[in-house]
Amino acid sequence: MGARPRVTLLTWSTAFAWIGAAGAALYYGAEILGIRTFAEASLRRGDASLLDEVQALRERPTAIALFGVGLLLVAVAGVLAAIAMSRARVPWARTGVVFAAGLVLVLPQFFTPPAMRIAHGVLFGVGCLLVAFAVTRLGSHRR
User: Per the UniProt record, which residue ranges are transmembrane (predicted)?
Assistant: First the structure.
């Protein structure tokens, strides 16, 4: 009998990221396609009151729950990735903290003014670059 494959923190992180992103993407997809449908119907009928339904589409409890849970799973994925990088004890391993902070703040940034959203984007972008740099350093560290 073969040995069972070892499930690592990065495996869990990847799983949570994919599942969370899928949940958030379903919300975005439904919102984008639904809004477009309302807008096109409004133009065809010459009735702008159909656009009032956009808010109802955005505020459906199932959609909001799917979006929120999806982004919470993405946040968990970021924290697990940061822990895994830290435990790897390689140069630049702590850069995962910036990446994790970017992922943890994805959901809260939706409730902030535009300047904070831009700052969040910069933070997350820097975190992604730092993780990319750290990962490229893995090969040279292990040689």
Answer: 7-28, 63-85, 92-112, 118-139
